[in-house]
Write a structure and sequence with these properties.
The complex is a heterotrimer. Chain A is an all-alpha fold. Chain A has a single domain, classed as Phosphate transport system protein phou homolog 2, domain 2 (Methane Monooxygenase Hydroxylase, Chain G, domain 1). Helix content of chain A is about 85%, strand content about 0%. Chain A is built from six helices and no strands. In chain A, helix 4 packs antiparallel against helix 5. Chain B is α/β, with parallel strands linked by helices. Chain B has a single domain, classed as P-loop containing nucleotide triphosphate hydrolases (Rossmann fold), CATH 3.40.50. Chain B has ten helices and ten strands. Chain C has a single domain, classed as MetI-like (MetI-like fold). Chain C is globular. Classes of the chains: A mainly alpha, B alpha/beta, C mainly alpha. At the A-B interface, helix 3 of A face helix 8 and helix 10 of B.
Chain lengths: ~210, ~250, ~280
C-alpha cells in the first residue's frame, strides 16, 4: 500500500545513493591521483563541495518529512539514519579532498618505494570495496552485508598498524613517510565511517544499536 | 511499576461475538496508558470492562479477572456501583446533563450521594472546575445551562463532573475526537496535569495523540493484545511486525 | 418553454387544491367555535359560575356544581391514572427489553383503542354494581382511559433522552434507579408533563363513560360513593331538555369545556417552548 510519506522517503534515498556513488568516485580519484601522480585536485574539490551541499539537502528534506508526517517506528529510524549516513558520505568527500591535498602540497607518492605504493594501493582497494558494499547494503537494507563489512574493517585496521610497523622498521624519505602515513590514516578513517554507516543500516532494520567496530 | 489494574485473562462477548481475547495487562498507577488499534478491535469494550460498564449492555458477558486495589472487581460480592465511583469515565461525545446548569452538572455526583451542605458543594464544585481549568471561564455564570458551552468546554465540564466524586482512575473513550485542534490541545495538556494524581487510560484512534500524551501504549488488534510497553519504545522500535505495520500505516 | 409553463400551471393548481383542503378542514372547527361562543356567551354571568344546576322550572341557575364535580372527578382520575401511567412508561422505556414489555406495549395499544363507552360499561359492571353510581366509578373509568395515553407519551418522552445521558450517570457510580428518577426523568420532564396535561384535557371531555358509571347529578359534591355533577355530561343532558334555561346552560357548559381544553393545550404548548 502506498503511503504519502513513501514519495518523500524515496526521494531521500535517491539522493543518498547518488551521494554514495559520488563519494566512492571521489575517494577513488584521490587515491589514483596519489599513486599514479595524476592531477585532479579541482575536480575532487568540486565533488567534496557537492557532497556537503547534498548532505545539507538531505538534512532539510528529513526535517520536512518529520514536520509534515510525524513518522514513527521504522520510518523514524530510517530518516534519522539517513541523516547520519549523508553526513558520513560527506566526510568521505572531505577525506578525498585531504588525500588529494597531500598530492598537491607534498607531492604524493611520486618516487616512493614500490612496497609503500603497493601497500597504499591494497588498502585503498579494500577501503573502496567496503564503500561499495555499504552502498549496496543501503540499497537493500541488507544487514548480512552490513555485518560482513565489520570483518573487512578489522582487516583494514590490521593493515594500517602493519604498515606503520613496516615503515618504522624500513624507513624512507621524509616526504614519502609523511605522505604515506597521512594517506593511510585517511583510508583507515574512511573505513571506520563505513562501519558507522553499517551500524545505521542495522539500526534501521532492527532498531538495535549494534557496535561493529 | 505500582500496579493499579492487574488484568488477567480478560475475555468479553457481545452475545456470541468474542470481542476481547485473553487480555493480560498490568496498568501503572498515576500514569497515562493509551490503547490504540484499528476501529472495532475492542478498545472501547476493554475500558468498559474496567469499570463494569460492559455488562449493562444486554447480551454482554465478561470472563477473567480485573484486580483493582487488590480486589477482583468481578468477584461475587463486589458492588458495581462502588466500582464506578472509584473509576470515572469520559465519553467520546461530551454529554453534560441536559436541562441542568453548570453548577448542577458538577455537583450532581455529590448530591446524589447525600451531600446536602451548600458550603461543601460549592467548594467541591469550585475545586473540580479549577482542576479542569474551567473555573475562570465559567465562574461568573454557574447557573448557565451546561449545553450552552462550547464542545471543548463541555468535555472539560464532563471531566469536572467525573472528578467531583474523587475517583482514582479516569477512563477516557476518544475524548477529543469530536473537538477542534485547540480544544484537543487543551484537553491533552489537562490529561498530563491530571496524570500526576490519577491513573488515566485513554482510548484513541489518533496515533499521534497516543504518542504525545501517554507513558505506556497498548496495541489491540481484533480483540488481542499484540504489544504493550513504554510509549517511546513502541513508537521508535516496536517489537511486533503487526504493530510496526499499523503505526506506519502499512495496513491494507 | 412550454414544458416550464405547464409545470407552473400544475404547481399553481396543486397549491390551490391544498389551500382548499385546508379551508375545508378548518371550516368545522371555526363554525363550532363560532356557534358555541355565540350561544354560550349569553349564558355567562356571575350567576353562571356560582349557582348550581337549577331544578325543573327554576329560572336562571349556573354550572358551579358541574365545575366542582368535573374538577373532583378528573382530579381523582389523575390520582390513579398518572402514577400508574408514569410508572408503566418508565418500566417500558428503561427496563423494557424483555418479552414481557412487548406484551405490555401491545396490550396498552389495544386498551387505548377501546371505545370509551365500553370502558364505561366495564366500570359499571365492576364498580358501580357494587358501590353504586359514584365519583369513584367515574374516576376509575376515566383513569382507565388515561393510563395508556400517559404510558405511551411517557415512554416516548423517555426514549428521546439519549443513551449517553444514562451512561454518563451510571458511570458516575449512581445506582440505576436513581439515574432514572433524577437524571432521565428531569431531562424528559417537559414532554412528560405535556403528555399528562393532554390526557387530562381528553378525559375532561368524556361524557359516555361518565354517564354509564356515575349518571347525572344535579347537586353539590355529596361523598365519594355518590355521583357528582359533570360538565361534559351536562352538555349532553341539558342540550336535549325542553327547558330554555337548561339549553342555555348547555351552551355555556360547552363553552367552558372548550375553554378548559384550550387552556390546557396552551399551557402544554408554552411549557414545551422551553429548551427541549
Amino acid at each position: 500500500m502506498s503511503r504519502i510519506i513513501d514519495t518523500g522517503l524515496r526521494d531521500l534515498s535517491a539522493i543518498l545513493y547518488r551521494m554514495g556513488g559520488l563519494a566512492h568516485h571521489a575517494v577513488l580519484k584521490a587515491t589514483i591521483e596519489c599513486i599514479e601522480g595524476k592531477e585532479a585536485h579541482e575536480e575532487i574539490r568540486e565533488m567534496a563541495d557537492m557532497l556537503v551541499a547534498m548532505a545539507d539537502h538531505v538534512e532539510d528534506k528529513a526535517f520536512e518529512l518529520i514536520a509534515r508526517f510525524q513518522p514513527v517506528a521504522s520510518d523514524l529510524r530510517t530518516i534519522k539514519s539517513y541523516m547520519k549516513i549523508a553526513y558520513d558520505f560527506a566526510r568521505f568527500g572531505r577525506y578525498a579532498l585531504d588525500i588529494s591535498s597531500i598530492n598537491k602540497q607534498v607531492g604524493g607518492l611520486k618516487g616512493c618505494e614500490e612496497w609503500i605504493n603497493s601497500y597504499v594501493k591494497e588498502m585503498s582497494e579494500k577501503t573502496l570495496e567496503m564503500v561499495k558494499l555499504s552502498i549496496e547494503s543501503l540499497k537493500s537494507h541488507n544487514i548480512q552485508i552490513a555485518e560482513k563489512i565489520s570483518e573487512k574493517e578489522k582487516e583494514v585496521d590490521r593493515m594500517y598498524f602493519e604498515f606503520l610497523d613496516e615503515l618504522i622498521k624500513c624507513g624512507t624519505t621524509i616526504k614519502c613517510a609523511v605522505s604515506s602515513v597521512l594517506i593511510v590514516r585517511y583510508l583507515e578513517r574512511i573505513a571506520d565511517h563505513v562501519t558507522y554507516i553499517c551500524e545505521s543500516i542495522i539500526y534501521i532494520a532492527t532498531g538495535q544499536k549494534k557496535i561493529l567496530r | 511499576m505500582v500496579v493499579k489494574f492487574d488484568v488477567q485473562n480478560l475475555n468479553a462477548w457481545f452475545g456470541s461475538k468474542h470481542v476481547l481475547k485473553n487480555i493480560n495487562m498490568k496498568i501503572e498507577e498515576n500514569a497515562v496508558t493509551a490503547i490504540i488499534g484499528p476501529s472495532g478491535c475492542g478498545k472501547t469494550t476493554f475500558i468498559r470492562c474496567l469499570n463494569r460498564m460492559h455488562e449493562i449492555t444486554p447480551g454482554a458477558r465478561v470472563s477473567g479477572k480485573v484486580i483493582f486495589n487488590g480486589v477482583n472487581i468481578y468477584d461475587n460480592g463486589v458492588d458495581p456501583v462502588m466500582v464506578r465511583r472509584k473509576i470515572g469515565m469520559i465519553f467520546q461525545k461530551p454529554n453534560p446533563f441536559p436541562m441542568m446548569s453548570i453548577y448542577d452538572n458538577v455537583a450532581i455526583g455529590l448530591k446524589l450521594n447525600g451531600v446536602r451542605d451548600k458550603k461543601i458543594l460549592d467548594a467541591a464544585v469550585r475545586r473540580s472546575l479549577e482542576l479542569v481549568n474551567l473555573w475562570d471561564e465559567v465562574k461568573d455564570d454557574l447557573k448557565k445551562s451546561g449545553a450552552s458551552l462550547s464542545g471543548g468546554q463541555q468535555q472539560r465540564l464532563c471531566i469536572a463532573r467525573a472528578l467531583v466524586v474523587e475517583p482514582e482512575v479516569l477512563l477516557m473513550d476518544e475524548p477529543c475526537s469530536a473537538l477542534d485542534p485547540i480544544a484537543t490541545a487543551k484537553i491533552e495538556a489537562l490529561i498530563r496535569e491530571l496524570a500526576r494524581n490519577y491513573t488515566i487510560i485513554i482510548v484513541t484512534h489518533n496515533m499521534q495523540q497516543a504518542a504525545r500524551v501517554s507513558d505506556y501504549t497498548a496495541f489491540l488488534y481484533f480483540g488481542e493484545l499484540v504489544e504493550y510497553g513504554p510509549t517511546e519504545q513502541i513508537f521508535e522500535n516496536p517489537k511486533h511486525e503487526l504493530t510496526e505495520k499499523y503505526l506506519t500505516g502499512k495496513f491494507g | 418553454m412550454d414544458y416550464y409553463r405547464f409545470r407552473v400551471v400544475k404547481d399553481r393548481l396543486a397549491q390551490f387544491l391544498v389551500y382548499l383542503a385546508l379551508f375545508l378542514a378548518l371550516v368545522p372547527l371555526f363554525s363550532i367555535l363560532y356557534e358555541v361562543v355565540m350561544r354560550g356567551f349569553s349564558a355567562i354571568n356571575i350567576e353562571f359560575f356560582i349557582k348550581p344546576t337549577p331544578t325543573v322550572g327554576e329560572v336562571g341557575g349556573g354550572i358551579a356544581n358541574a365545575i366542582q364535580g368535573t374538577l373532583i372527578t378528573i382530579g381523582l382520575a389523575s390520582l390513579i391514572g398518572v402514577p400508574v401511567g408514569l410508572m408503566s412508561g418508565i418500566f417500558l422505556s428503561e427496563y423494557g427489553e424483555s418479552k414481557l414489555s412487548t406484551v405490555i406495549r401491545f396490550l396498552q395499544d389495544v386498551l387505548s383503542g377501546i371505545p370509551s363507552i365500553v370502558i364505561g360499561v366495564f366500570t359499571y359492571t365492576l364498580i358501580t354494581r357494587s358501590i353504586g353510581f359514584s365519583v369513584i366509578a367515574a374516576a376509575f373509568a376515566l383513569a382507565v382511559i388515561m393510563i395508556p395515553i400517559v404510558t405511551r407519551t411517557t415512554e416516548e418522552a423517555l426514549k428521546l433522552v439519549p443513551m449517553s445521558v444514562r451512561e454518563a450517570a451510571i458511570a458516575l457510580g449512581i445506582p440505576r434507579w436513581k439515574t432514572t428518577i433524577t437524571v432521565v426523568l428531569s431531562s424528559a420532564k417537559k414532554a412528560i408533563v405535556t403528555g399528562i396535561l393532554l390526557s387530562i384535557a381528553r378525559i375532561a371531555g368524556e361524557s359516555a363513560p361518565v354517564l354509564v358509571s356515575m349518571g347525572f347529578w344535579r347537586w353539590w359534591f355529596a361523598g365519594l360513593n355518590r355521583p357528582v355533577a359533570n360538565l361534559a355530561l351536562n352538555v349532553f343532558i341539558f342540550a336535549m331538555s325542553p327547558f330554555e334555561n337548561w339549553v342555555t346552560l348547555a351552551w355555556g357548559s360547552a363553552l367552558v369545556l372548550i375553554l378548559l381544553v384550550l387552556g390546557i393545550s396552551i399551557v402544554a404548548r408554552v411549557l414545551t417552548r422551553g429548551r427541549y
